[in-house]
TrEMBL record:
Residues 1-33 form the signal peptide. InterPro entries: Cu_amine_oxidase-like_N, Ester_Hydrolysis_Enzymes, GDSL, Mao_N_sf, SGNH_hydro_sf. This is Copper amine oxidase-like N-terminal domain-containing protein. Residues 319-429 form the Copper amine oxidase-like N-terminal domain.
Length: 431
């Protein structure tokens, strides 16, 4: 009963500041890494040419930053943007840059993208006076580099709007119902105008990027009260309508802009997807996973998980988007992953030779060569000696002897890209 009472109390606080928004929603006004890849559009999905690099830039507020209660500058962040990088690695080599700013409003983001368009460093207050993010000065002074990143991006992801609403909540208690209704109307109108201009500026900075703008979920659960829940849900619908209208206007001009409908996925899952019970509206890990799924579906049409992420195996290896399927599972020694030589050479399309006299494997791919002696603490990649934490080894599997080689050293030596996701327990290899 205490939990239910607590949620209801929080719902009433939020409702006080947002009540009039519901009336307006139905009225139609509704860093933390990094050029250009070859992209073909088919069925709303993005395909990157093999061997090229896909670049994704995320910009926006604390949801873009991946904020959760208690987060500091040194916190290990795992938000939706980090998950999008993992999803991108299923498709090709990937660089992701995150320009998420804590406390940023749609007005602040508009100021930020206008400054980026100019390409000249500004002060923090030029972006948004009094902003709470301790990194704001670095964002402001780094604008020339930010413009380069945005101009080269294949995909630009945006979350913005939550802090616009919080401004109204802070003023609500001192307003009459009429004043609140007027202020709410102004907020929604300004939000829609801001996001339209933000999108327009971004299409000027980079006319070729796919731009995806998320709508706003509402965090208060039904347990706070049926009437409050219905009203707040209508508010979220109003913000979704504003996003859809802004996106549609640019799409009619031939711009590659999409809306990511996050809000509908949070309906009925507010307690499960946010920190609302602890008086914080930000997503928790389940919420960020959900946002990432919506964004990934907007980019590629689907969201993938590996067998290791599903708990079916200890470690997954993904090569050019295909999960390695083998009865000979990867082995981890001294923090280093080992795989069966034949499995990895077949997966990358390389060739291998075995010298039984010296117990040495030689792997070749696209002009590169890696020599791996069994039991030795070094391997040779294109004539350069490299140390290995643990040597390659032979292991019996049934009646066969399998050669296990250090995965990262091998693929890097062959000039391939290798990335490891500790959250997914997955190694990604891209050609």
């Amino acid at each position: 009963m205490k939990k239910k009472s607590k949620i209801r109390s929080k719902g009433r606080v939020l409702l006080t500041g947002m009540l009039s928004l519901a009336l307006l929603a139905g009225g139609g006004t509704a860093a933390f890494a990094e050029t250009t890849a070859n992209r073909a559009e088919a069925g709303g999905q993005t395909t990157i040419k093999q061997g090229s690099l896909q670049t994704i830039v995320a910009i926006g507020d604390s949801i873009t930053a991946g904020y959760e209660p208690g987060m500091t500058e040194t916190s290990a962040v795992y938000g939706y943007v980090d998950r999008i990088k993992e999803q991108a690695l299923f498709h090709n080599r990937t660089e992701v840059t995150n320009y998420g700013i804590l406390g940023l409003t749609s007005s602040g983001l508009l100021n930020y993208v206008k400054a980026i368009q100019e390409g000249i460093a500004v002060t923090a207050d030029t972006i948004q006076p009094g902003i709470s993010d301790p990194r704001i000065s670095a964002f402001a002074s780094g604008i020339p580099g930010t413009k380069t990143k945005l101009a080269q991006a294949d995909t630009i992801l945006i979350t913005i709007g939550g802090n616009d609403v919080s401004q109204l909540i802070g003023q609500a208690k001192s307003m009459s119902a009429e004043q609140l209704e007027t202020k709410a109307y102004e907020l929604l109108t300004a939000y829609k105008t801001n996001i339209q201009e933000i999108l327009s500026v971004l299409t000027v900075i980079n006319p070729n990027a796919q731009i995806i703008l998320a709508d706003q979920y509402q965090p208060v659960p039904k347990i706070a009260g049926e009437s409050q829940y219905v009203m707040l849900s209508k508010i979220a619908e109003g913000f979704t309508q504003a996003v859809d209208e802004a996106v549609a206007a640019l799409a009619q001009e031939g711009k590659s802009v999409k809306a990511a409908h996050v809000a509908e996925r949070f309906v009925g899952k507010e307690l499960s997807y946010t920190h609302i019970f602890n008086e914080d509206v930000h997503p928790n890990q389940s919420g960020y996973e959900t946002i990432a799924k919506v964004m990934a579906e907007s980019i590629w049409g689907y969201y993938r998980i590996t067998e290791a992420q599903n708990g079916k195996t200890e470690l997954s290896v993904v090569v050019s988007g295909a999960e390695l399927q083998t009865p000979y599972k990867p082995v981890v020694k001294n923090g280093q992953t080992f795989v069966v030589l034949r499995d990895i050479t077949d997966a990358i399309g390389g060739t291998s030779k075995w010298d039984s006299k010296s117990s040495t494997a030689t792997v070749s791919y696209n002009g590169s060569e890696v020599v791996i002696p069994i039991g030795a603490k070094t391997v040779t990649a294109n004539g350069i000696s490299l140390e290995t934490a643990s040597p390659a080894f032979l292991q019996k599997a049934g009646t066969e002897q399998k050669t296990y080689v250090p995965l990262a050293l091998l693929v890097k030596g062959l000039g391939l890209d290798v990335q490891y996701s500790s959250k997914m327990k997955t190694v990604f290899i891209n050609l």
